[in-house]
Specification:
Blueprint (H helix, E strand, L loop, with lengths): L7 E5 L4 H12 L3 E6 L14 E4 L5 H11 L3 E4 L13 H21 L4 E5 L23 H20 L3 E6 L2 E2 L12 H10 L4 E4 L5 E3 L1 E2 L4 H6 L8 E4 L4 E3 H13 L7 E4 L8 E2 L4 H7 L7 H13 L6
Parallel strand pairs: 1-2, 1-4, 2-3, 4-5, 5-6, 6-11, 7-10, 8-13, 9-14
Antiparallel strand pairs: 9-12
Helix pairs in contact: 2-3, 3-4, 5-7, 5-9, 7-9
């Protein structure tokens, strides 16, 4: 791949899990990295030293125009979003403002400032309740406002490329985990939710009977493929995630066992099944393996142990 060191890269959502790790990865490779975050779901201490940080909201078009004029980025990674599928039907306005309209503002600035490429993190939520493993060639059919908003951005990017020549790649990561994940949000990041509850002496809560199957991916395996997409595979969509899925009951059991190493003994509590939740949700990653050299070797127990040790050192938050 062409040497892109010293290229100017802008990351939205830089204080979150994916954004902070990607910023750290790019800085280690010699890129000039700037980042945007409103700190509504990420935390300033997550942002690596060396990142030129802009605190603000993507909804503020005039402010965003100024940031783009100042940075003049070559590449943009658009990670900023509020990813709460189950909550999204109850926060429709916030969901579409945060995940769709803010994305449109970023896309507009990429067009106006001749950005070479935008890499957008969509979501497995665009697939809805199709037949897993979901493939990129399948027709998306999202079943909640969060998935709808993500698919709308995908379609808008396709339109922007056709009309204005804005190059893009789309990644549909799913259940990405690791240290720096927001474990204090009650509505997203199931493993983070469980860790927070255990640390507070509460039960591990599972909606339904726990036979739902999910795959969890350590963030470190996503970073090289993300970097490769700066120059490769414009207009393409890629699934990124772990090839092994687990019933949630098994995941809860592993985490309970991990927490037991540190003196915690959480109970597992089953709650009423959530309406519209897909029972089986995991993806096919052969395209990313073939074209991006993607190889996910997540050790779920080890990654959750790293997260738990990290979480025990954090100050509790609201």
């Amino acid at each position: 791949m062409e040497n892109l060191q010293k290229s100017k890269v802008l990351i939205t959502g830089v204080a979150g899990l994916i954004g902070s790790h990607m910023a750290e990865h790019l800085l280690s490779k010699g890129y000039d990295v700037s980042g945007i975050d409103n700190l509504s779901g990420g935390y300033k201490e997550n942002i690596p030293k060396g990142v030129r940080f802009y605190f603000g909201d993507l909804e503020n078009k005039l402010w965003l125009e100024g940031v783009f004029r100042e940075i003049k980025p070559d590449y943009v990674y658009h990670f900023a979003a509020y990813a709460a599928e189950g909550l999204s039907p109850f926060i429709r306005n916030f969901n579409y403002s945060n995940n769709l309209l803010c994305s449109v503002n970023v896309i507009n600035e990429c067009i106006k400032n001749d950005v070479k490429k935008i890499i957008f993190t969509s979501s497995m939520a665009v697939y809805g309740v199709g037949l897993p493993p979901f493939k990129e060639s399948g027709i998306p059919h999202p079943i909640d406002p969060y998935g709808i908003s993500k698919y709308a951005v995908e379609m808008d990017l396709e339109c922007a490329k056709s009309q204005f020549g804005l190059d893009y790649s789309i990644v549909r990561p799913h259940n990405v985990i690791g240290i720096r994940q927001n474990i204090w949000d009650k509505y997203r990041n199931v493993i983070g939710i469980w860790i927070r509850r255990i640390l507070r002496g509460e039960s591990i809560c599972i909606f339904g009977d726990g036979t739902q199957e999910r795959a969890f991916s350590d963030i470190k395996f996503c970073l090289d493929p993300f970097e490769k997409l700066m120059l490769e595979h414009g207009g393409e969509v890629f699934n990124l995630g772990c090839p092994k899925q687990y019933p949630l009951n098994e995941v809860a059991g592993i985490l309970a066992d991990v927490s037991g190493e540190f003196g915690y003994k959480p109970a597992v509590e089953h709650l009423e099944q959530r309406h519209g939740e897909a029972k089986y949700a995991y993806c096919d990653h052969k395209k990313a393996e073939r074209l991006l050299g993607f190889k996910d070797e997540t050790d779920l127990r080890q990654t959750m142990k790293e997260m738990f040790i990290w979480a025990m050192k954090q100050n509790d938050r609201e």
